[in-house]
Amino acid sequence: MDRRNAVKLISAAGAGLSLGFKSFDLDTSNIRARAIGTTNEMLPVVGLGTWQTFDVGSNSTERDALTQVLRELRNYGGSVVDSSPMYGRSEEVVGELSAKLGITNELFMATKVWTSGKQSGINQMNQSMQLMKKPKMDLMQIHNLLDWQTHIKTLKDWKEQGRIRYIGITHYVSSAFSKMESIMKSEPIDFIQLNYSIDSREAENSILPLAKERGISVLINRPYGGGSLFHKVKGKQVPDWAQEFDCDSWGQFFLKYLLSNEAVTCAIPGTSKPHHMVDNLKAGLGRLPSAKMRGRMIELVGSL
Fold it and tell me: NADP-dependent oxidoreductase domain: which residues (predicted)?
């Protein structure tokens, strides 16, 4: 089944129908959390990305749905919301909607600097913090390593001054991993953000082990391969053996594979649909696949 139909059936199961899988309630006390390596602050393992999905105007229907996405994130124990100046109006929308819900201080907000030059970077980061209504940003990242040598100096200064809590670097293509690894070895960063999915596993070779070794926390973007994974499983049933790791949808299947890697701190799939937000959060509940099961998952996806 595709993701939309899977989620519908999951909801129906709560009304008395059965998928044949173990059923469990969303309980915030059960949402898995992992420690930020440099401080041991705990973060829920499933968060929210905002690329494309939060780049909306003033349309009330769109904004109401996004408000509910943020509400579900908090209701079920999530906190990480990641944005960027690159994402159009996403920072502004996150800031306005979280303030409307009164949850700004409950969210772990992350954004990025995406420009060249020291003063340009300072101006952009100030604007981002204003838009997101976060005078002290939880995590500021250098987007796609753009002019990173310049911005890393500002980020270290701002962290020392208490203007930001954590600093990091990001990229979305595997070809950038070697450069990211070099920075990880030479700079005191707290986070990396990178692409990783069950059908794009290059991160497992070197950069994730290095992050674990150095105590650097990891955010995962493109956990569904930009949506391509759902095309692969369209019309197909989640395998019966997925119940062994408390999985009842393809979305959970793909996320639980990533979360079973202990180097991963938090996956941040984007969505504009509240029921997808809930389904994503379910990946943070219950058991995770064993090493043997991970191999079986890879084999299944590779056969599609």
Answer: 46-291
